[in-house]
Design brief:
The radius of gyration is 23 Å and the shape is elongated. The chain is α/β, with parallel strands linked by helices and 434 residues long. An 8-stranded mixed sheet has the order 3-2-1-4-5-6-7-8, with helices on both faces. The protein has a 6-stranded parallel sheet with strand order 11-10-9-12-13-14. The protein has helices at 10-22, 33-40, 51-60, 70-75, 98-110, 127-138, 158-163, 175-184, 186-189, 200-231, 235-243, 264-277, 283-304, 333-343, 356-363, 373-377, 390-393, 397-403, 418-423, and strands at 2-6, 25-29, 64-67, 79-82, 115-119, 144-148, 168-172, 195-198, 314-318, 347-351, 368-369, 382-385, 408-411, 427-429.
Amino acid sequence: MNITIIGTGYVGLVSGICFAEFGFNITCVDKEIKKIQKLQDGKIPIYEPGLEVILKRNIEANRITFTSELESAVQNADIVFIAVGTPSRRGDGHADLSFVFSVAKEIAKAINGYTLVVTKSTVPVGTGNQVKQIIEKENDKAEFDIASNPEFLREGSAVEDFMRPDRVVVGVETERAKKMMAALYRPLFLLETPIVYTSLESAELIKYASNAFLAVKISYINQMADLCEKVGANIDDIAKGMGLDKRIGNKFLHTGPGYGGSCFPKDTLALVKTANEYKSEVSIVEQTIKYNDLRKKQMVKKIQSSVDSLSNKNIAILGLSFKPETDDMRDSPSIDIINGLLNLNAKIFAYDPEAMNEAKKIFSDKINYLQNTQECISGKDILVVLTEWNEFRALSPLEISKLMKGNIVIDLRNIFDSKSMFDAKLEYIPLGKK
C-alpha cells in the first residue's frame, strides 16, 4: 500500500516514519525545501528519542521518501494523510484550518483513481465534511472517501505511543474506507490494540475531549497542591492516594507550574470555541484555561516571595521545554515565568538539554544561556527547576549547595527530596508540601 503524508511537522513526521516501520511505502510531502533535504539525509528537525534511528533504517530499506512535489505524491497514493498544522487562530482562538483547506484543494486536483483522504491533524468537529465538500467542488469526478484518524502522541515518547498505543481511533463513512484503515493498522491489530471505529464527528471530538480532560486533571492536582500548602498536607501523598483508585489512575497527577506544549493550550481553547458555536456549555474546560494562565503568574509570585526583592538577583533556571525529552517550547510555562521574572529586573541564567536553540528564538539576548547544569547553577542566588529532565533529578543537594552563592531552591516539579535538601542547608521550596 502506498501512503502519502502531507506535512512533516511533529505529527506527520512521526506518523510517516512509523508507518514505514510497519512496512508500507511512505512518501512525505512538505513545501520547505531545506527541511526535505535534511530528511532525505536522515536528519530530523525535531528532538524525539529513537525517531532518527528508525528513519535511517527505513531510508536504507527504500520504504520512505521525502519530496516537495505534492501532485505526484498524491497521484501514486492509496491513502493520503493531511497532517498540517492547526494552530490557534489569532483574534478568536478557533483552530486555524487554512492549511488543511489549502491542502484539500491541492489533493482534489491531483487525485488519480480511488483515494482515501484522512485527516491526521487535530481538527474541530465538522472539518472532515468540509474537506469532503472542498474536494467535490474542486473535482466533481474525484473518486474518494474521507476518514478521521486523530493522533495521541506524547512528545518524548511518540515512537512507543505509535507502535503500542492505548487505542487507535478511526472515523469513517464507508465500509471500503474502514477496510483500508483496518489493513493499515493490521500490525497493531495483531498486538490486540483496541481500534475504535466511529463517525467522522465522533473521531474528531474524541481528540479534543481527551486532551481537555487531561488538562482538567493537571489543573485539578495543581489546585490541590495549593490547598496542601495552606493546610499542611503533602501533595505527593494526596496524588498517591488518589492514583491508586482505578477509576482515577495515577497519570497526570503530578503538580507543576501549569500545562503547555503544542496540544493542550490550543485544543482546550478550540473545544470551548466549538461548544460556544453550538451553544453547549463546557464551563469546566473554560475555568481550566483561566486557571492555567493564572497558575504561571502564581509561580512568579512564589519565586518573588522567596526574597525581599528580585531586582538584580541572579536566577538559575533549569529546564525550558514544556516537558522533558523534547525541545518543544510552544506555550511552555517557562516563557511566562521567565518573562515575569525579567519584568521584576531579575537576571536569568538558563540551561536545557535540548531546548536552548528554541529558547533563543523566543528570548533572544534577554537571558543568559549556559552550557551545562553545573555552570548554570554556579554562583547564583536562586535556583528554579521548571522542567523535570532526568539529569536534573540526579543532582546532589550537597553539590547544589556548594555551587550556589545563595541557598534558595524553588522546585516547581518536586524532583528533589525535602529532607536531603534541608540537610544540605538549602532553603527548599517545593509545590504542595514542606
